[in-house]
Amino acid sequence: MKKRLMSLMLVVGLVATTVLSGCSGASKSSVTNKDEINVCLGSEPQTLDPALNSAVDSGTVLAHLFSGLAKWEQDDSGKAVLVADAAEELVDGVENADGTVTYTYTLKDGLTWSDGVAVTAKDFEFAWNRAASVALAADYGYMFDVIDGYDEVWADDATGSEKLNVKATDDKTLVVTLSNAVPYWNELLAFPCYYPVREDVVANESWATDPSTYVSNGAYTLTDWSHNSLITVTKNDNYVDASEVTMKTINFYLSDDANNQLTNFQNGSWQLIDDVPTNEIENLKTNYADEFVVAGQLGTYYVCWNINEELLPSTSTLTGTEKTEAEAEIRNAFSLLLDRNYVVEGIAQGGQVPASSFVAMGITEADGSEFYENAGDSDSYDGYFDTSADAYADNCTAAVETLKKYYTYDESTKKFTDVPTLTYLYNTSEGHKAIGEYVQSTLANYGVNIQLENQEWATFLTTRKSGDYSIARNGWLADYNDPITFLDMWTTASGNNDVQFGKGDNADVKAYSLDLTSYGYDLNVTNGTWAETYDKLISIIKSCTDDTVRYELMHKAEDMLMSTGCITPLYFYTDLYMVDDSVEGFFSTPLGFKYFMYVTYAD
């Protein structure tokens, strides 16, 4: 899921973070109304439609407004666990003779929408088909590809009448059939795009922009949305588990100004903020030791390159496959020029780990080992290049030698003279700006002119998604604890494919090869398109039920992804935020979501 803020510890398992009362920073007496909590997760969300949302902060708001079949809670040990929500229980699937797997869910009694209408299994059937539909073209539509019938919905000859194999057999019973066994199925059920919506409500295309038309089925209702200022949600007394919800009102203040957030935290106005100025981090570690939190998170901060951006000098005569391979070499060379240790120690300063792969630290193999430790083919370091401080000088030397193949190099100035001017796009944040400035100044040392462009969050997402950029900052948090959540987003049709793999000019480029015959698959492509190789590989991975083979194929997918140079990982995320020391019952998960419904204040 898209990560908005500059988050700053390793994730060893899916462990939630609970904040207990302490004795530093803001005073407990600063909280005058204990029936509400004031928090700031970021600026104006792009959408509060659960099918269209792709950001973590607005996903947190949605988790309070909607009730899916499953939800995340925290057990007594502090671990984040999946439990039934709208469903009576999370059932085991039944494998059918053809290899498909069928799940039958029974909804709890007494489920209602915020307008008093009963929630039915038909609402889930409708919502899932809507979210997966070609017509909606949601960023996360591909997350339903594990359900039988999805391929028919998206087939080239589809008529629009095709549906997922999801059936409401009565008001309380939902039967869903998967194409094959999926190890992370229960986690999908807790994800926002799997939340129900009601057909008559969403028929109004602007339903999710105004509290007067917003209908949800969760622990809270949307009672106010002062755009670019404040979103207020209020406890839904008709929620089936309302007796467990302790906080009556949550005010989600909207700001992307880290200094503003810190000021409001320090004066007691806001009890949680999800960003702080980077130049204050060392001070906060000392003076707010009990309120400044650095928690585990499954994610990667990276730079993405538009694969259709021209990188070669105007004098180059390379075309076709040769051009594609040259630009991949160039992007990988630029990546080696970036000092990730400086980025985490001199800019971010929050315990992040330099990254040399895209699949994040904390994502595990079938045997429990770390996926990233097995990435790449080196015996001397993890991943696709050496991020150690001692290797940086050699990385730069190797990068320059590669770039000399394509650009004119002035030996007297030690700079290239004909690299096209590029633009680095980032969303408003002091941290993102600082990293952009570092990229700009570092590449300038080699004669590369990088211009910086800042956009507010919603505009930034649209620009990046449309491919109207050269280079852009990016971040991805796992949607569930499986490597595929970092890999399936790069298929041609994925709404999260900001790199534009298989789109535009790249759609017809035949520069990718893949041989899976040694795994028993009839797929051996030389110089094929992205759709003929990577897309096919992801499809095979999702249908594979042999864990050993599945993980080997996922490493092949990351090999393909990293070979393009379009993904420049900088560091593995940690989650940095501040929470008032009087707050009890709050928790977060390494997937990025934060939960306030069980909050109370210490006396």
TrEMBL record:
<protein>
    <submittedName>
        <fullName>Oligopeptide transport system substrate-binding protein</fullName>
    </submittedName>
</protein>
<dbReference type="GO" id="GO:0015833">
    <property type="term" value="P:peptide transport"/>
</dbReference>
<feature type="signal peptide">
    <location>
        <begin position="1"/>
        <end position="21"/>
    </location>
</feature>
<dbReference type="InterPro" id="IPR030678">
    <property type="entry name" value="Peptide/Ni-bd"/>
</dbReference>
<dbReference type="InterPro" id="IPR000914">
    <property type="entry name" value="SBP_5_dom"/>
</dbReference>
<dbReference type="GO" id="GO:0042597">
    <property type="term" value="C:periplasmic space"/>
</dbReference>
<dbReference type="GO" id="GO:1904680">
    <property type="term" value="F:peptide transmembrane transporter activity"/>
</dbReference>
<feature type="domain" description="Solute-binding protein family 5">
    <location>
        <begin position="90"/>
        <end position="497"/>
    </location>
</feature>
<keyword id="KW-0732">Signal</keyword>
<dbReference type="GO" id="GO:0043190">
    <property type="term" value="C:ATP-binding cassette (ABC) transporter complex"/>
</dbReference>
<dbReference type="InterPro" id="IPR039424">
    <property type="entry name" value="SBP_5"/>
</dbReference>
<dbReference type="Pfam" id="PF00496">
    <property type="entry name" value="SBP_bac_5"/>
</dbReference>
